[in-house]
Amino acid sequence: MQGQEVGRRDRKRRHTRAALAEAALDLFEELGFAATTIEDITERADVSRRTFFRYFPSKEAVLLADPEEYEHVLVEALAAQELPLTMSRVFAALAAAAEATQDTEAIRRRRATIIASNHLEVSSIAWQAFSTARDALTTHVAVRSGLDPDDRRLTVAADLALFTMSLAYMAWTEGEEHATLTAEFERTVAVLRALVNDDLALGDAI
After folding, report:
1. Which residues 6+ apart lie within 8 Å of 158 measured at CB?
2. pLDDT in tens, 93-139
3. What is the 3-class SS of 47-92, one letter each residue?
Protein backbone atom coordinates (compact mmCIF):
# COMPACT_ATOMS: atom_id res chain seq x y z
CA MET A 1 0.00 0.00 0.00
CA GLN A 2 2.82 2.35 0.89
CA GLY A 3 4.52 1.57 -2.43
CA GLN A 4 1.33 2.44 -4.31
CA GLU A 5 1.13 5.79 -2.50
CA VAL A 6 4.74 6.59 -3.37
CA GLY A 7 4.06 5.63 -6.98
CA ARG A 8 0.98 7.84 -7.06
CA ARG A 9 2.88 10.82 -5.68
CA ASP A 10 5.67 10.29 -8.18
CA ARG A 11 3.22 10.16 -11.09
CA LYS A 12 1.54 13.33 -9.84
CA ARG A 13 4.90 15.07 -9.52
CA ARG A 14 5.87 14.07 -13.05
CA HIS A 15 2.50 15.17 -14.41
CA THR A 16 2.68 18.59 -12.72
CA ARG A 17 6.26 19.18 -13.83
CA ALA A 18 5.42 18.16 -17.40
CA ALA A 19 2.37 20.46 -17.45
CA LEU A 20 4.44 23.41 -16.25
CA ALA A 21 7.17 22.69 -18.79
CA GLU A 22 4.65 22.39 -21.63
CA ALA A 23 2.96 25.65 -20.65
CA ALA A 24 6.32 27.40 -20.43
CA LEU A 25 7.56 26.13 -23.79
CA ASP A 26 4.30 27.14 -25.48
CA LEU A 27 4.57 30.64 -24.04
CA PHE A 28 8.27 31.01 -24.84
CA GLU A 29 7.39 30.21 -28.46
CA GLU A 30 4.33 32.47 -28.53
CA LEU A 31 5.62 35.51 -26.62
CA GLY A 32 9.37 35.08 -26.50
CA PHE A 33 11.41 34.06 -23.49
CA ALA A 34 11.99 37.56 -22.07
CA ALA A 35 8.33 38.59 -22.36
CA THR A 36 7.03 35.47 -20.63
CA THR A 37 6.60 35.82 -16.88
CA ILE A 38 6.34 33.10 -14.27
CA GLU A 39 2.79 34.32 -13.64
CA ASP A 40 2.01 33.69 -17.33
CA ILE A 41 3.29 30.13 -16.96
CA THR A 42 1.42 29.36 -13.75
CA GLU A 43 -1.79 30.82 -15.14
CA ARG A 44 -1.48 28.72 -18.30
CA ALA A 45 -0.75 25.58 -16.27
CA ASP A 46 -3.41 26.50 -13.67
CA VAL A 47 -1.09 26.15 -10.67
CA SER A 48 0.26 28.53 -8.02
CA ARG A 49 3.52 30.46 -8.15
CA ARG A 50 4.70 28.40 -5.17
CA THR A 51 4.09 25.23 -7.16
CA PHE A 52 6.26 26.51 -10.01
CA PHE A 53 9.21 27.08 -7.68
CA ARG A 54 8.72 23.63 -6.19
CA TYR A 55 9.77 22.22 -9.57
CA PHE A 56 11.95 24.92 -11.14
CA PRO A 57 14.30 27.48 -9.55
CA SER A 58 13.84 29.85 -12.51
CA LYS A 59 12.46 30.22 -16.03
CA GLU A 60 15.81 29.15 -17.44
CA ALA A 61 15.63 25.83 -15.58
CA VAL A 62 12.58 24.85 -17.66
CA LEU A 63 14.92 24.59 -20.64
CA LEU A 64 16.97 21.81 -19.06
CA ALA A 65 16.20 18.18 -18.28
CA ASP A 66 14.90 17.25 -14.83
CA PRO A 67 18.13 16.68 -12.83
CA GLU A 68 16.44 14.27 -10.39
CA GLU A 69 15.03 12.15 -13.19
CA TYR A 70 18.32 12.15 -15.08
CA GLU A 71 20.25 11.14 -11.97
CA HIS A 72 17.83 8.25 -11.42
CA VAL A 73 18.00 6.91 -14.97
CA LEU A 74 21.78 7.40 -15.13
CA VAL A 75 22.31 5.31 -11.99
CA GLU A 76 20.02 2.60 -13.39
CA ALA A 77 21.87 2.64 -16.71
CA LEU A 78 25.24 2.35 -14.95
CA ALA A 79 23.95 -0.50 -12.77
CA ALA A 80 23.00 -2.41 -15.93
CA GLN A 81 26.58 -2.33 -17.22
CA GLU A 82 28.88 -5.27 -16.52
CA LEU A 83 32.02 -4.95 -14.44
CA PRO A 84 34.68 -3.76 -14.84
CA LEU A 85 33.30 -0.37 -15.80
CA THR A 86 35.32 0.73 -18.81
CA MET A 87 34.90 4.02 -20.67
CA SER A 88 32.95 2.16 -23.35
CA ARG A 89 30.45 1.00 -20.74
CA VAL A 90 30.22 4.44 -19.16
CA PHE A 91 29.54 5.94 -22.61
CA ALA A 92 26.90 3.25 -23.20
CA ALA A 93 25.24 4.12 -19.88
CA LEU A 94 25.13 7.82 -20.77
CA ALA A 95 23.53 7.05 -24.11
CA ALA A 96 20.99 4.76 -22.44
CA ALA A 97 20.19 7.43 -19.85
CA ALA A 98 19.53 9.99 -22.57
CA GLU A 99 17.10 7.55 -24.20
CA ALA A 100 15.39 6.64 -20.92
CA THR A 101 14.48 10.13 -19.74
CA GLN A 102 10.91 11.30 -20.06
CA ASP A 103 11.99 14.02 -22.49
CA THR A 104 11.28 13.23 -26.12
CA GLU A 105 13.41 14.28 -29.06
CA ALA A 106 10.71 16.83 -29.91
CA ILE A 107 10.89 18.43 -26.44
CA ARG A 108 14.68 18.54 -26.55
CA ARG A 109 14.50 20.15 -29.99
CA ARG A 110 12.00 22.77 -28.81
CA ARG A 111 14.23 23.69 -25.87
CA ALA A 112 17.29 23.97 -28.09
CA THR A 113 15.43 26.16 -30.58
CA ILE A 114 14.17 28.48 -27.83
CA ILE A 115 17.67 28.84 -26.38
CA ALA A 116 19.16 29.62 -29.78
CA SER A 117 16.42 31.93 -31.05
CA ASN A 118 16.38 33.97 -27.84
CA HIS A 119 20.19 34.03 -27.53
CA LEU A 120 19.94 32.74 -23.98
CA GLU A 121 22.86 32.16 -21.66
CA VAL A 122 22.01 29.19 -19.44
CA SER A 123 25.53 28.19 -18.47
CA SER A 124 25.07 28.61 -14.71
CA ILE A 125 22.01 26.36 -14.61
CA ALA A 126 23.57 23.91 -17.06
CA TRP A 127 26.60 23.72 -14.77
CA GLN A 128 24.32 22.78 -11.86
CA ALA A 129 22.82 19.98 -13.94
CA PHE A 130 26.31 18.89 -15.00
CA SER A 131 27.42 18.81 -11.35
CA THR A 132 24.41 16.70 -10.38
CA ALA A 133 25.18 14.18 -13.11
CA ARG A 134 28.88 14.21 -12.21
CA ASP A 135 28.13 13.45 -8.55
CA ALA A 136 25.80 10.60 -9.48
CA LEU A 137 28.31 9.17 -11.95
CA THR A 138 31.34 9.35 -9.66
CA THR A 139 29.47 8.05 -6.61
CA HIS A 140 27.98 5.05 -8.38
CA VAL A 141 31.15 4.10 -10.23
CA ALA A 142 33.20 4.49 -7.04
CA VAL A 143 30.92 2.10 -5.16
CA ARG A 144 30.85 -0.51 -7.90
CA SER A 145 34.56 -0.28 -8.67
CA GLY A 146 35.87 0.04 -5.13
CA LEU A 147 37.49 3.40 -5.88
CA ASP A 148 37.70 6.53 -3.79
CA PRO A 149 35.28 9.13 -5.26
CA ASP A 150 38.24 11.52 -5.55
CA ASP A 151 40.42 8.99 -7.39
CA ARG A 152 41.99 10.80 -10.37
CA ARG A 153 41.01 8.04 -12.79
CA LEU A 154 37.40 8.37 -11.76
CA THR A 155 37.15 12.15 -11.90
CA VAL A 156 38.87 12.30 -15.30
CA ALA A 157 36.60 9.56 -16.67
CA ALA A 158 33.45 11.26 -15.36
CA ASP A 159 34.39 14.69 -16.71
CA LEU A 160 35.41 13.23 -20.07
CA ALA A 161 32.17 11.27 -20.43
CA LEU A 162 29.90 14.18 -19.48
CA PHE A 163 31.85 16.70 -21.54
CA THR A 164 31.53 14.38 -24.54
CA MET A 165 27.78 14.27 -23.99
CA SER A 166 27.72 18.08 -23.78
CA LEU A 167 29.60 18.35 -27.08
CA ALA A 168 27.17 15.91 -28.68
CA TYR A 169 24.22 17.93 -27.43
CA MET A 170 25.61 21.15 -28.88
CA ALA A 171 26.29 19.45 -32.22
CA TRP A 172 22.80 17.94 -32.20
CA THR A 173 21.11 21.31 -31.65
CA GLU A 174 22.90 22.67 -34.71
CA GLY A 175 22.38 19.58 -36.87
CA GLU A 176 19.60 18.30 -39.06
CA GLU A 177 16.17 17.87 -37.54
CA HIS A 178 15.92 14.15 -38.27
CA ALA A 179 19.13 13.37 -36.35
CA THR A 180 18.76 11.92 -32.84
CA LEU A 181 20.75 12.92 -29.78
CA THR A 182 21.85 9.32 -29.23
CA ALA A 183 23.21 9.06 -32.78
CA GLU A 184 25.07 12.36 -32.37
CA PHE A 185 26.55 11.13 -29.09
CA GLU A 186 27.77 7.94 -30.78
CA ARG A 187 29.39 9.99 -33.57
CA THR A 188 31.08 12.26 -31.04
CA VAL A 189 32.42 9.26 -29.10
CA ALA A 190 33.75 7.74 -32.32
CA VAL A 191 35.62 10.94 -33.20
CA LEU A 192 37.01 11.15 -29.66
CA ARG A 193 38.28 7.56 -29.81
CA ALA A 194 39.94 8.13 -33.16
CA LEU A 195 41.66 11.30 -31.93
CA VAL A 196 42.89 9.76 -28.67
CA ASN A 197 44.17 6.64 -30.46
CA ASP A 198 45.92 8.80 -33.07
CA ASP A 199 43.80 7.15 -35.76
CA LEU A 200 42.62 10.59 -36.86
CA ALA A 201 44.80 13.63 -37.38
CA LEU A 202 43.31 17.07 -36.82
CA GLY A 203 43.57 17.85 -40.53
CA ASP A 204 41.86 14.64 -41.69
CA ALA A 205 38.36 14.62 -43.10
CA ILE A 206 35.81 12.88 -40.88
Report:
1. 90, 134, 137, 138, 141
2. 988 888 888 777 888 889 988 988 888 877 777 777 788 888 888 99
3. CCHHHHHHHCCCCHHHHCCCHHHHHHHHHHHHHCCCCCCCHHHHHH
DSSP H helices in the chain: 2-31, 38-45, 49-55, 67-79, 87-100, 105-117, 123-145, 152-174, 181-196
Which has the closest alpha carbon to 114: 180, 185, 31, 55?
Answer: 31
Helix/strand/coil for 201: coil
CA–CA gap between residue 201 and residue 204 (Å, rounded): 5
> CA 91 from chain center: how many Å?
14
Q: Which residues lie closer than 8 Å to 194 by C-beta, 6 or more apart?
A: 200
Q: Full-prediction pTM beyond 0.85?
A: no
pLDDT digits (tens, 9 = 90+) for 181-200: 888 899 999 999 998 888 87
Asked if residues 58 and 49 have their Cβ atoms less than 8 Å apart, the reply is no
CA angle 147, 150, 153 (to 5 degrees): 65
Could you give the CA distance from residue 91 to residue 196 in angstroms, rounded to a whole number?
A: 15
Do 192 and 168 form a contact (C-beta atoms < 8 A)?
no
List the one residue out of 159, 149, 137 whose CA is nearest residue 93: 137
> Looking at this protein, which amino acid is placed at residue 20?
L
